[in-house]
């Protein structure tokens, strides 16, 4: 039995002192650990040991790896005595926790830095345009324009002072109405039901317009909070457009005086930004359209969202959600072969189920080189819209949803602002869509969102 014992002792020495591919010597093990740490400097003892076993095929104990690492100064105070966050056997979890903490701190710092940069940018924009209201008292800013004298308002919202129209530098591409307010090319296309089927670069141009429009709307929405004015929102939107080499499409379109539509509470659409501060509990729709150049051609991208500002009542939250769901219901129908007139029934069904009504006076529209063109896209049921969806069609859907049973609207004396006739609140969402071979691409979707699916996100519209 002595011989058997001798063989056992020899085997023990091999395992302790090293030798062979799976049982490295102390020097070989130290060198292997150095290579692992060189490639993965954050690895502690447990993860180094696991790596050596799984990758190098080493049959060594964690205790031996720990000893070699300690002897060669390859552990750190940050990861504890074991190099993996404290207690032996829990090293991997400790290291993961430390890594997550560092990652969280990094994200928080990055978020704080981005917020400061954004706040500084907004402050600069407002400072650079402060001359528009310089010297005015708060009372003067809140004074109603003369055309509203003796006007019988349907709701509680009141207009305020509207500042001077902004200018656009000559390097920015401009639509044909930019100077004289008349969209002659759009007028020339009226009466046609032919819908342009876009391909190739035209689709890429529309994608660019959609992305730029989304960026500008996200900037404006981020700026909104209790106390900012519609005029300030307009100044932010104007600056954001110019930074992206875009023309703000609403500006001077049939003499619309601003770069964005800001529609508050009972305003259905086309609200003119003025000096009234946004109040706690308001719902605020921002309607952004941009005009971009792509490979020598020009394209519009149109979208809007309704924001919940401060402490909104439950009824307003439900209204805004209903407006979103109405657009989503229509979005789900977009594909080759769908008749444009059928969208209205789906939208009306969602609205009625939520005790809301669909405005009939305004509709979605084709969009591309022209701001508004074929097809017309009514949002109410039993409409007479002409046309069937084909791949390459680009158009907007933008259902305006009123609280209660009245769909009727009326207009303010400024000849733009549409409000509910009964004074109740109205909400709206809009996207520019592209019909694809298999369905739909939402050209104005949020960054990182699905290409063809709308996903409700209450946090994204709460301010």
SSE topology:
Layout: H1 2-17, H2 26-39, H3 45-56, H4 62-71, H5 91-128, H6 138-142, H7 184-188, H8 200-223, H9 230-243, E1 247-248, E2 261-264, E3 267-269, E4 283-294, E5 297-308, H10 314-331, H11 343-353, E6 356-358, E7 364-366, E8 373-377, E9 394-397, E10 400-403, E11 409-411, E12 418-420, E13 426-428, E14 431-435, E15 440-442
Helix pairs in contact: 3-4, 8-9, 10-11
Strand content: 5-15%
- The overall pLDDT, averaged over residues, is 90
What is the helix content? 25-40%
Biggest sheet record: 4 strands, antiparallel
Q: What would you call the structural class? A: alpha+beta
The 3D shape can be described as elongated
How far is the first residue's CA from the last residue's CA? Answer: 84 Å
Rg, rounded, reads 32 Å
- Outline the low-pLDDT stretches: 1-19, 77-90
Count of β-strands = 15
Order of helices and strands: HHHHHHHHHEEEEEHHEEEEEEEEEE
The helix tally amounts to 11
What does this protein look like?
The protein is α+β, with helices and mostly antiparallel strands. The protein is 36% helix and 15% strand. Strands 1, 2, 4 and 5 form a 4-stranded antiparallel β-sheet that branches. The model is unreliable at 1-19 and 77-90 (pLDDT under 50).
What is the gist of this entry?
It contains 11 helices and 15 strands.
